[in-house]
Amino acid sequence: MAKVYYDRDAELELLNGKKVGVIGFGSQGHAHALNLHDSGVDVAVGLYPGSSSWAKVEAAGVKVGTVDDVARDSDIIMILVPDQVQKQVYEDHVAPHLEDGGKTLMFAHGFNVHFGQIKAPEGVDVSMIAPKGPGHLVRRVYQEGFGVPALVAIHQDASESALATALAYGKGIGAARAGILETTFLEETETDLFGEQTILCGGVTSLVKAAFETLVEAGYQPESAYFETFHELKLIVDMMYEGGMANMRYSISDTAEYGDYTRGPRVIDSGVKERMGEVLREIQDGRFAREWIAENQVGQPHFRALRRINADHPIEHVGKEMRSMMAWLNEGKSK
Fold first, then answer.
1. Torsion angle, CA of 216/222/227/233, rounded to 10 degrees?
2. 263-313 confidence digits (pLDDT tens)
3. What Å distances lie between residue 238 and 226, 234, 254, CA to CA?
4. DSSP one-letter string for 218-250
């Protein structure tokens, strides 16, 4: 049975007298820093000189400095810059301030530690608090008095109190209100990559595009195809999120439910599961990590080309037009 920690299991007071440095002020960085600040933690944000986020941090009333300065002055350092730049940021600006040991190095995703890109000195605690939600949600839910669940993992326990410190941090960002599940860097990294590639990002977008193309190629209006294959997806996912698949099936028509049982497995068949297994093996044996690391080493040419191609897919053009008519979607949209 998985171990789950809650507010009662975490002592925020363990952070009293300690300085926490959050490196980065993006999606997760801003949420962690602001939540910790509101929890009374002595937190500072580390940014590169000239960062456009510098003024935002100051406006929020949080201390800000260069990555070097914040890493030097902090007892706990949470690295929240993108995976592809973490190694360089760590080696150039964080590692020099860890040589004497005694500090805690934290992550919200285990990619660089698990795949050997970042190796901390033996005298440093290495841990993880990984919220299971985007940063804007971590921040908003905290402000509402609740929390987004998170994962906790310990890679290196030099102090023999790494777990207690990580849980205190998790409580500071509000995660302990919802529950912090104990895991490992291996499990978090491999399941996270698998989920992103097969369902949450790659699987869903590929399924939606294939369904849209099938309807349009059969002569149906692209706008109708968009509504059926894209727009209504959120409604279905929300029902599953709130009460499981049974809740979704309770809310739809009997016709839809029957089609779910009889046609769904014909589309997502055993062959899909076999290919999911192939994707998982590529994650487990490091092939995906090596591919992504190599892609970044040469400037991301393939990645950028794929981004351009997918941004130009017909469903994106139709969707942009359709969403422009939905006034309620314009508030708070990302771009």
1. 50
2. 999 999 999 999 999 999 999 999 999 999 999 999 999 999 999 999 999
3. 18, 6, 19
4. TT--HHHHHIIIIITHHHHHHHHHHHHHHHHHH
Query: How many CB atoms are closer than 10 A to CB 115?
Result: 19
Q: Which of 124, 113, 178 is nearest to 151 (CA)?
A: 178
**What DSSP string runs through 258-317?**
HHHHHHHHHHS-HHHHHHHHHHHHHHHTTHHHHHHHHHHHTT-HHHHHHHHHHHTSHHHH
Which residues, including other chains, have CB under 8 Å from residue 209's CB and lie 6 or more apart? 313, 315
Q: Which helix (H) or strand (E) holds 188?
A: helix 185-195
Dihedral angle sign, alpha carbons of residues 57, 58, 61, 65? positive
Q: Verify whether residue 109 is a known catalytic residue.
A: yes
pLDDT digits (tens, 9 = 90+) for 137-166: 999 999 999 999 999 999 999 999 999 999
User: In angstroms, rounded to a whole number, what is the distance separating the alpha carbons of residues 141 and 122?
Assistant: 36
Catalytic-role residue among 93, 109, 114, 155: 109
* pTM (two decimals): 0.91
Q: Is the dihedral of CA 103, 109, 115, 118 positive or negative?
A: negative
Edge-to-edge, what's the strand order for the sheet holding 150-156?
A: 4-5, 180-182, 150-156, 125-131, 104-107, 76-79, 19-23, 42-47, 63-66
How far, in Å, CA of 34 to CA of 18, rounded? 16
Tokens of 333: 């949209």
The rounded distance, in Å, linking the Cα atoms of 300 and 93 is: 23
Q: Which residue's entry shows tokens 């530690």?
A: 113
Which token pair is 64?
Answer: 């800000």
